[in-house]
Amino acid sequence: MTRPGSVKIREVGPRDGFQNEPEIIPTAEKIRLIDSLGRAGFTRIEVASFVRPDVIPQLADGVEVLKGIDVPDDVALMVLIPNSKGLDNALRVRELFHEASIFVSASETHNRKNINRTVAETMADDRVMAKRILEEGLTLNAVIATSFGCPYEGKIDLESVLTLAEQFADMGATEIGFGDTTGMANPAYVADFFSAALDRLRGVELTAHFHNTRGQGLANAYAALEVGCSSFESSFGELGGCPVPVGSTGNIATEDLVSMFEEMGVDTGLDLERVIESAREAQAFLGRKLTSHSILAGPVDWTGSLAGHP
Ligand code: ZN
Q: What is the CATH number assigned to the segment(s) 8-295?
């Protein structure tokens, strides 16, 4: 498998990132940042979750956010649907988004702690939701969390992850994302994983979603790319994270991922300067230093413009 010449990157900061911010971000600020991202060239942005507002208060304003967004027409807005009740609420504003994402954890324990159900119960409900989502003419995406390891169960069997992915494909998912929810993946395993997954799930778009918990996010993205993965998710400013393990950092930073790919000659279709600008806007608003590298260093400068400086 040769390295893809271009990749798609979905920006997930407005959902996966904001969700983990302790202070409530005002709706108008969320809209401003999403609009800013929409001008950076993204064609896919995850913008809201229809989870119960008392579970994640930060995302309680999802409908208002969707109503306020003003991005180019070719930007597909994705929402996360946790259960049938969430889908009911989402479909009331069906005209405001394009893609719906359903999910499960590959780990029984993580799934139970996250949504208080068994994997089998979740997949049964996901199948019902998938049918309704497709009937609405929406694009169906599916996500498998803890695909590369679980903090409760340790190693997650590759075969069990691929079996779940095949079930999602059978439900009609056009895209399946594999989440390294707590940053346990390493590049060697990622290469084996995506080689096997791309071979088994032909015709389905397979998306890599890495967290930079242990600083290996970009190495993992590179490993996935090299075996043919051409779809990625990341979060501007490296926003996001997961409460387990405590203190873990977020998703890989979109601007670092874009910088790496573009420097390698892999087309992302994104305007790196604008992505960095969006991340800087988020940093200024949140009032704390974000952990992305490019936010500080900026894009690589090949013009030698620092010549003459000490
Ligand atoms: Zn994530």
A: 3.20.20.70
